Automatic annotation (TrEMBL):
Keywords (A to Z) from UniProt: Cell membrane, Membrane, Olfaction, Receptor, Sensory transduction, Transducer, Transmembrane, Transmembrane helix
Membrane topology category: Multi-pass membrane protein
Cellular compartments annotated: Cell membrane
Protein's organism: Sitophilus oryzae (Rice weevil)
Protein name (database record): Odorant receptor Or1-like
GO molecular function: odorant binding; olfactory receptor activity
């Protein structure tokens, strides 16, 4: 029972550490999604803003409502350009700060998964030791999956970023706003990719690769067993 308690404590400790990094990546992905939503509702935003400030507008501004609307739209696109640049810097900072740590986590996880699976073949089923190994195995696998899923999420959010911008009613934008939109699309040409140790992309493909390598190493250990 003590082993199960220790395993449970390990689960919570590791989860607290791992969710910090993945939480930062999720935050970046959500910010990209906010930009997409903002760009898809530019005209609605401008109309809502003008409606809310209708009483405070001067007679000249009311007569030039379309011009004022164009200014609001341009301002919003400019904010999106700035925000996307900040998100990109934020993602690069995450990679610079945690790339080595994630790489070491991946390497250790492969060894742990192999050892834990090998131990399952040696212990008595449904014993305390067996349950302890199962809990730690699930924890180790979940840690790797969390990183890979978060990396895949931010990649997918930015992969079709430019295509998603076409939802914007860009045909009716003024020249200044169209230029700002082109600038935003230039930013979105390359999807965000976070790498572990500058070698492995955080993606579900990498997770599958790690699982395959773990199984291969387990097979080698099984051969030595016999």
């Amino acid at each position: 029972m003590l082993c199960i308690g220790c395993a449970t404590n390990t689960v919570f400790c590791n989860s607290a550490l791992d969710t910090l990094i993945t939480g930062l990546i999720y935050q970046a992905a959500v910010q990209v999604r906010i930009i997409k939503d903002t760009m898809a509702n530019l005209e609605e935003f401008a109309e809502e803003k003008l409606g809310a400030e209708h009483e405070t507008l001067t007679s000249f501004e009311r007569e030039n409502r379309d011009t004022l609307k164009d200014k609001l739209v341009y301002g919003k696109i400019s904010q999106c350009v700035y925000r996307y640049g900040m998100i990109k810097k934020f993602v690069l900072d995450i990679e610079d700060a945690y790339s080595i740590a994630i790489f070491l986590q991946f390497g250790i996880s492969v060894l742990l998964i192999c050892v834990q699976c090998f131990q399952l073949t040696l212990v008595e089923p449904l014993s305390y030791r067996f349950l302890y190994i199962i809990i730690t195995l699930i924890t180790t696998t979940s840690e790797v999956f969390m990183y890979c899923y978060a990396g895949s999420l931010i990649y997918n959010e930015t992969l079709f970023f430019n295509s998603d911008l076409y939802i914007t009613n860009w045909i009716n934008l003024d020249l200044k706003s169209k230029r700002a939109l082109i600038t935003l699309m230039e930013y979105g040409k390359r999807p965000f990719v976070i790498r572990a140790g500058k070698l492995f992309d955080l993606s579900l493909d990498t997770f599958a690769f790690i699982m395959r390598r773990s199984y291969s190493l387990l097979a080698i250990m099984q051969n030595y067993k016999y």
